[in-house]
Specification:
With 424 residues, the chain is mainly alpha-helical. The protein contains 21 helices and no strands.
Length: 424
């Protein structure tokens, strides 16, 4: 029986994503041991900033994936090549402007994070690199080059890890890690460029492509396509990014450097619960999208199965955090971070609530729902305001996380039951 290209591509992407996630976690564990808590807190906050700075890149990736998929269906690889060249140009222009803005904000960032300016000067270079890498990833995705797309993502993370170890080892500390992040992204972009242009050149040379004139891309057509991608999926992705990362930034601002580093380690360990849940969601919930498209009744059943699996795995990990927090912290980060052990169980419970909430969120994304965005945005504001007002201790911060994640779970569950009752 012939295997579905969708299933094959999905399996490749899933495997690559899991490997990349493992490497990202190894990166955090290695940096936590190589750096002091103060420097590690600075690294985590800066890496978190790169995630937030990557939001425009996520929009670009989504737009290019959709457009390139249409061009591929038409075998219009000449236009695909033209699109890639055009996006590279605007990525450089927008990236240089972004770098200038980030450089101008360097004094503010240095004061806000209580860190020397040099890492933020290096960080400013992330703007063009992020956009270039996003353009490469989006066109690889739309082109159906799933092996290259997985290699593209893996190379960025592997390069970041290897270069960070080398640069920290020679004494460059925080600045070295941020440089490694940028160089890793640049390497992945160069790989994507090679993979894309190689395929386009081979296809055009083989005569497979249709003989049409390449589309004339301009700023007007590019900007005109933006409203098409600013839909629920994009906004939900932005909210997920903010909800899962804003705590590190706020904590770095308010707590002294050593305590902020300890909290960063606590957050990284606690989010094992979240990551285990997202792995399950990645596997199961795309089927909900297919069920929704067919108007089959299996979507709700898949949601319930996902919730059960996330609950079982997440509760087991959270229970371990309550039972043996010192052992967990020592094994992952070392004895230096033992002071946060009393709060690991509470934080793990908060992350369990969040993990269950994200099952609902991904289900709504798969079924093209919209109304969940309003309570999701409200819960995100509760988290931000709560952390801004209550941050005197790590225990207080963990409690704010518990309240905000619990509220998110209640609201996401309520949206589901209200919608289900309405449809009966």
């Amino acid at each position: 029986m012939q295997k579905s290209p969708f299933l094959i591509g999905g399996s490749i992407i899933l495997t690559g994503s899991l490997l990349t996630s493992v490497l990202n976690y190894v990166f955090n564990l290695v940096m936590g041991r190589m750096l002091s808590p103060s420097d590690y807190g600075a690294v985590v906050s800066l890496v978190t900033l790169t995630m937030l700075a990557g939001v425009p890149g996520s929009a670009l990736t989504l737009m290019l994936a959709k457009r390139t998929a249409v061009l591929k269906a038409r075998a219009d690889y000449a236009s695909a090549a033209q699109l890639f060249r055009f996006v590279q140009r605007i990525s450089w222009i927008a990236g240089i402007i972004g770098t200038a803005v980030l450089l101008a904000l360097t004094p503010f960032f240095a004061r806000f994070f209580h860190t020397e300016p040099l890492p933020f000067i290096i960080f400013s270079l992330i703007a063009p690199v992020t956009l270039l890498a996003a353009s490469g990833g989006g066109i690889l995705q739309g082109n159906g080059q799933f092996v290259h797309l997985s290699a593209f993502r893996f190379l960025s993370t592997a390069g970041k890890l290897a270069l960070s170890i080398a640069l920290v080892w020679i004494g460059l500390s925080v600045s070295g890690v941020i440089a490694a992040v940028i160089i890793g992204s640049l390497l992945s972009y160069m790989y994507a460029r090679w993979a894309l242009m190689s395929k386009i050149t081979r296809t055009l040379g083989s005569g497979i492509a249709t003989q049409v004139d390449a589309a004339d891309y301009s700023w007007r057509t590019f900007i005109g396509a933006i409203p098409q991608i600013l839909g629920p999926i994009f906004y939900a992705t932005v909210l997920i990014t903010i909800f899962t990362s804003i705590d590190v930034i706020i904590v770095k601002h308010f707590l002294e450097a050593h305590a902020a580093g300890e909290y960063s380690a606590l957050a990284i360990i606690g989010r094992i619960v979240t990551y285990s849940g997202l792995a399950i969601v990645t596997v199961l919930l795309p089927e909900a999208s297919a069920a929704h498209a067919k108007r089959a009744g299996s979507g709700a059943r898949l949601l319930e199965q996902s919730l059960l699996l996330v609950l079982v795995t997440g509760a087991a990990i959270a229970a371990l955090f309550f039972i043996a927090p010192q052992l967990v912290i020592t094994l992952l980060f070392g004895a230096t971070y033992q002071s946060v052990a009393p709060y690991l169980g509470l934080f793990g419970l908060a992350m369990l609530f969040g993990s269950l909430s994200f099952v609902f969120v991904h289900y709504y994304m798969a079924t093209q729902a919209k109304y969940f965005l309003y309570p999701f945005g409200a819960a995100t504001m509760v988290l931000i305001i709560g952390l801004w007002l209550y941050h005197s201790s790590i225990q207080q911060i963990a409690f704010v996380q518990l309240v905000a994640n619990g509220l998110l779970l209640i609201t996401m569950g309520s949206v589901y039951f209200i919608e289900r009752k309405r449809c009966l």
